[in-house]
Amino acid sequence: MAKGKVLLMLFVSILMGTGALLLANNWLQQKQANISAENQAEYTQPVQPTVKEEPKVARVIAQIGIPLGTKIEAKHLQVEYYPADLMSASGFEQTEQVIGKLARNEMFQGDIIRKERLVAPGEGTTLAALIAPKMRAVTIRVNDVIGVAGFLLPGDFVDVIYAQEKVNRASTVLKKIKILAVDQTARTDESKPIIVRAVTLELTPKQVETLITAKSKGELQLALRNPNDPEEKPQRVYRRTTDAVTVIKGTQTSRVNVRI
């Protein structure tokens, strides 16, 4: 009887030891599987690069197109942010700095508004502010024919043709002249023809003298031109020289001038 109890206890001990061994082995396998899964996730997960955010500054831009000579209002403007190292110091950070000024030239939607593109109140008339440095503005009277049937607009370029009635001859006295204003406006209105009585041209002081001299002697005609036409290169003039050769006829000798 005692021997049977010993065998039973031995069997139970072996069974419990085997169970504990199986449980421990299962736990180790599960632990290794979890560690492998974590390592695999670390290797497969992309490393996010650290991006250094660049400092940005506010700049006032044109929310809509702004025609030349327009008094700028809040509806024309909006504020956007740009990288600081790409911006010049001539821009504006607040719309209040721009409102009330005049557009020196036409600005398109999205253009950054700069100081050199504006005219502040008190800096003279709008037209005077539009004149380029060292240039002059001269107004001439026109009719439907001279004014190209009303298709002249500020910003267009024309050639000025001088017609001499007495000799029935015409010649171009000025080329690619910019129109600053038609009548009393320096603004453009798309391509709608308007009847004008006067056109203001931007000229150099020398061109002013040429225009006034031609106007006093005959009639002026304006020819509208494409602003993208290439500049005509001045033709080089070669001066002909003369030389003398000696011609001998029998006993007579003479000198004859010959062009070279």
Automatic annotation (TrEMBL):
What are the boundaries of the signal sequence? none
- Tell me where on the tree of life, at the top rank, the source sits: Bacteria
Task: Spell out the Pfam families in the cross-references.
Answer: RcpC, SAF
InterPro entries for the chain: Pilus_assmbl_Flp-typ_CpaB (IPR017592), RcpC_dom (IPR031571), SAF (IPR013974)
Cross-referenced SMART domains, in alphabetical order?
SAF (SM00858)
Residues in a coiled coil are: none
Q: Where does the SAF domain start and stop, copy by copy? A: 57-119
Protein's name in the database: Flp pilus assembly protein CpaB
